[in-house]
Each structure stands twice: as structure tokens, then as C-alpha cells.
Amino acid sequence: MLFFLIRMDFKGKDIISIKDFSKKEIDYILDYAKDMVRYAMGEKYKNVLGGKVLSSLFFEPSTRTRLSFESAMNRLGGRVIGFSDPSGTSQKKGESLADTIRMADSYSDAIVVRHPHEGAARLAAEFAEVPVLNAGDGAGRHPTQCLLDLFTIRTEKKKIKKNKIVLLGDLKYGRTVHSLAYALSLYGAELTFVSPASLKMPNEVINECKELGIEPTYTSNIEKAIKDADVLYVTRIQRERFPDAEEYNRVVGAYKIDNNLLKNGKENLIVMHPLPRVTEINPEVDTTPHAIYFKQAFNGVPVRMALLSLVIGGKL
Ligand code: CP
To answer: Quick one: fold of 143-297?
Structure first.
């Protein structure tokens, strides 16, 4: 297999931002993740990371990222230590992030960290010898989500290039769309951004797309945007990031995806969402062929298995 012929060395590498990876490296990770699918489903087993320990440090709530990392480590034969709520840790006594990371570094072979502050994962990497994987830092980046999103589009659409992709919702605070807009530009996808005026994609991200030769289009008209779209990527309005509740109340419920709206789209339009959703996708969509979001969430397991195997150094 090509994977074994041109093995790339990721051992010890931090996964902080998708921008740290070339397209070739991303393709390599996605190919490896494809090999992991049957292991992620429990149909096959190999003790790839037996004896290895992962620190899972979640300073912010999570369901998918934390559990899929834990599932990934367990499916590969490794073990997990950590916490899902910092209120039970010595952070409560005033311990710094740097010291917490130093401890996890001495107890484990890799560290996954989610933190409310942008830049926290990069800071953690400075204090750890073992690889650090960013599981989301504030409104910053979420590289492993980005990889599973790319994996999902590639699996469902066979390629990423030239797909017409609509990113909808909270493009200002939604960290998943920041990483994804960059990565989709790297692959030459066509991008349309749909958001309330106050939640537009940050200029920094728009400029990254432009530097990669992609000129996104902008609209507030979702019916029009999905007409010829291949992928509709919906995001939640990130209430926890709003400095003021009134601003949140003004935009919550701005977009709602339901079966009636999807009649404007192509038959093979796929609807993605990093989840959790609140009100932005009507549950009636769940049973349609458009709904890919639960499959997308599962894809977090093979993608994170691939990443853990690569950075810790186990071989499938
Ligand atoms: N997509 C995502 O990051 O979900 P969680 O917040 O549940 O981890």
C-alpha cells in the first residue's frame, strides 16, 4: 500500500493548527484514518498503543471530542487518564496551565487539551516534551475536528476539490469553521459564507482563503446559497463566547435547517454539523439522506486513532 511505501514521520509532532500541515501531510493522515475505520468500529483489533497512556485534559465541556479521543486510544490498546471538569483539579487552588501540563507530560505519552483561551494549546506544547493535540482552544482552532470534517467530505463526495461548500451560522466564534475554511481553500473547494451580519467570518480567515487562491462569496440568503451546493456545513451560535447576552438574543434562531428549506437544494446535498446542535437543524432532517452529521461525529474515532498512532509512534 502507498501508505507503507512513503511513510511520513509524525512521531512526537504537536497537532495545534491545521495550518501547520501541508496538503500532502493531510492526505497522508486521511488515508491512514481510512485504514482505521474497521478498527474504530470494533470489527478488527490490533494492540497498536499497548502500554501507552494519553492525558485527556478538558478545561471546557465536550462530548464528541473527549469521548472519541478516549475511544480511539482504547481501540488501539492504550489507556487514558485525565479530567473533564477542571473544578476537580488543582487549578482550583491556583495552579497554572503550565504546571498542569508539566504533570501530564510526566505521566503520559501524549496530551489532548481543550481550553477556553485561544493559544492555550500552543502554550501547552511549549511546556510538554510529549506531543500535544489541540482539542479546541477558545474561538481559535480545532484541527482534529477539521481533519474529521475533511475525511467526511472526501468519503461522501470522493474528493474535496471543486465541491461547492456553504459554511453557515456563527462564523465569528465557531472555531471549527475557521480551521475548515482554510483547509478547504487548500484543496480548492468553492466557498460561500452565510451568517448574520454580526457573526461574519473574521478577516484573518478570509485573507487566508484568498492567499490560497479562493475568493469566498457572501450572502445572507440561505435558500439561494444551497441551490447548487454540494455540502451545507451548519454551525451552532456559540452562546458561551458572546461578551453580552443581548447580542446573543438578537441572532439566536437566525437560521433553521428543515426539510422544507432542503427542497431548494440538490438531491445529493449533504448536511454536516460539528455538533452539538441546539435549534439550527430540525430533527426531522435526521432521517433524510442529507443528514451526515452523526456519521461525521463517528469519523472522529478513526481520524483520532490515526493521529494518536502517528504522534505516539505505534504502527497499524
Ligand atoms: N464537535 C465538537 O467539538 O463537539 P464537542 O464540543 O462535543 O467535543
So the answer is: Rossmann fold (3.40.50)
